[in-house]
Amino acid sequence: MPEPTGVIHDIGYQRYTGLRLGRRQVFGALYLHGVRTVFGLGRSAKAKIFPWLVVGIVGMVAAAVTAIRTQIGEVVMTYAQFADAMSWLVIFFVAVAAPELVSRDLRSGVLPLYFSRPLPRADYPLAKLLALVTGLWLLLGAPQLVMFLGGAFTADGMRGVWDELLDLLPGLLYAGLWAVIFASVGLLIASLTGKRAFAAGGIVAVFLMTTPIVGVLSILPSQTANQLAGVASPPTLVQGVGLWAMRDLLITDQDGVGPDLGPFGPVYALVAVALVAACVALLLARYRKVAAR
């Protein structure tokens, strides 16, 4: 028999003997990296321009509202109303952040590398979704803290500070509602394509194209259609849920007259839950399909 000619060379590679982290650490790393990505941290200066421009605008609005309140001694915008006022900025923020979270990975084909680690298929989209929800909540919640500090310093004693805190907490919950619904819809749309421009355009189109539907339904002769018009668009759906759950904080009319939901307030809440559940289910199904390729 011929002598073997192969030679094994020792070039210094060593086996990893350290602690091997598991699923929780992988999920946490994906989540933290996602939050950083939402705000462009760890990326080029170009990637930071739009997120921090939006953060700056939102912060300046909160500072202006706080300054006006300290001057005139009256609340010009509640915490919940602040989230409503920033809704258009939130739409464009989602349109930029969601494609950065998922479309880039789809386009570069790195998902098989993620799934080669101890990472269940569902953990990847859930970590990205949680990161986007956190980013949106911080975008709306942090300026509310600025407003709270301004209100607390001008409050009359500890009782006034406590009342101010009781006003802040529903506002933060309302900001969380905006974050959950917008992140669920935006990330699902972004997961459908690896091209960030297409994903961003699709997100903006979905939010904007549903707005005229609300307008059409609201002018129909049917009162039921008028009262249910808001469920046709994510922004008005969020406002309807907030109005039903926190009516005293969202009314902007001095006479106490807000949009008429009639008896359909619970319907808005059920539709919101169903929308989030459907988006999450479709997102998980999407990544099961991607992973199977």
From TrEMBL:
<feature type="transmembrane region" description="Helical">
    <location>
        <begin position="78"/>
        <end position="98"/>
    </location>
</feature>
<keyword id="KW-0812">Transmembrane</keyword>
<feature type="transmembrane region" description="Helical">
    <location>
        <begin position="49"/>
        <end position="72"/>
    </location>
</feature>
<feature type="transmembrane region" description="Helical">
    <location>
        <begin position="267"/>
        <end position="285"/>
    </location>
</feature>
<feature type="transmembrane region" description="Helical">
    <location>
        <begin position="172"/>
        <end position="190"/>
    </location>
</feature>
<keyword id="KW-1133">Transmembrane helix</keyword>
<protein>
    <submittedName>
        <fullName>Membrane protein</fullName>
    </submittedName>
</protein>
<feature type="transmembrane region" description="Helical">
    <location>
        <begin position="197"/>
        <end position="220"/>
    </location>
</feature>
<feature type="transmembrane region" description="Helical">
    <location>
        <begin position="129"/>
        <end position="152"/>
    </location>
</feature>
<keyword id="KW-0472">Membrane</keyword>
